[in-house]
Specification:
264 residues; alpha+beta; two-stranded antiparallel ribbon; 12% helix; five-stranded antiparallel sheet
Amino acid sequence: MTDVRTAPPPAAPGPAGPPPTVRMRGPVPRRVRPPRWLDLRLVLGVLLVLVAVLLGARVVGAADTTVPVWAASADLAAGTVLSDGDLVAVDVRLEDAAGRYLSTSTRPEGRTLSRAVGDGELLPVSVLEDVPELVQLALPVQAGFVPPGLARGQVVDVYAVADAAAGATGTADGAVTPVVVGAPVQAVSGRSDGVLSSAATTVQVVVSVAAGDADDVLAAIGGRPLVVVVHDSVDSAAPPSGTVPSSGPRPSAVPSTTPAGPTG
């Protein structure tokens, strides 16, 4: 309680005496309450925010049903032995078809393609089915008889010629002999684009052939110069079935007309 003193009223004429004191009651102060952290409105607000976040995460998670699978990074012919550079991981939405394609949890390096796969095509599980046993055969070819764009994964025919200077301009009477038909290229090495390169530089072209036909390929070459002819598409040939012996008939895959020699 607060005491308030006020000035006394003017004294009436009379004998002097002490002025009277008047006491007045002041306002009562209100005690301020500390904030309550468990306020009901605050709790309800937090619960609403949590429910909204959970619902949003559920909707986003349901919309993102993609799975990581392997895809080809370039055109690859049947019979190509897969390596790290042949594959790229992509996220796609496959739903019920996810089991048909090769997940990135599987490492297919070293496996052989049973059919051709196009650039960017998802890698089906069935494409790694067992194929006839193949071996890789390194063929030395002069750079002048290797197409400039030759690369891994392409399909080639390889001819043995009687004269390196003649290229593939010989006739079908034995001067030009097909020794490998429809073989996938596994690697190309030894090619140089520098000032020291020449048409006589030896390029190593590695192709896959059936294991039982490697001897026939080497016998058909017989130490003669080789010419490489590239197919337009990796789908133009099945997995390599072997060689064309020098004494055997020309296959239907090889045109009856004289093939044009590649430019250096």
